[in-house]
Amino acid sequence: MSAKNKLTLTVQYADTRLQESITRPNIRKWVQAALFAPAELTIRFVDAGEGQALNREYRGKDYATNVLTFAYNEGEEELPEDAPTQADIILCTDVLEQEAAEQKKTVEEHTAHLIVHGVLHAQGYDHMDDEEAAEMEGIETEILAQLGYADPYAD
What we know:
alpha/beta
């Protein structure tokens, strides 16, 4: 691992349903593939109740969503250049499994996509307008292809 991509990773299974199938080594591989700088990240799997509570409290949206990224040093101007990206990435197992079924994807490939998506958010990428969305989707598709997964945005 290059110094540029040094990673401190914590994985929490508050919702244990995916603990056996979505393993820490795979999560580390997916996170590392999406990192462009050092990072200290926590990946946490939650149920719909916790996901909804977090989304309501921090985004004002009263429903569980697939992934939430809390980037702690985003926008900080006083940080040293080599300061790691620090973030919590929350995945809601209920929504993740439902979306995977609806999109006819495996839970593994959808989880890989959501983790890559969350890691990019942690590093400042966003999809607030069409240009940003196209850039972020292109990066996600490229990373997932390198990991052996199909384009998540293909119809």
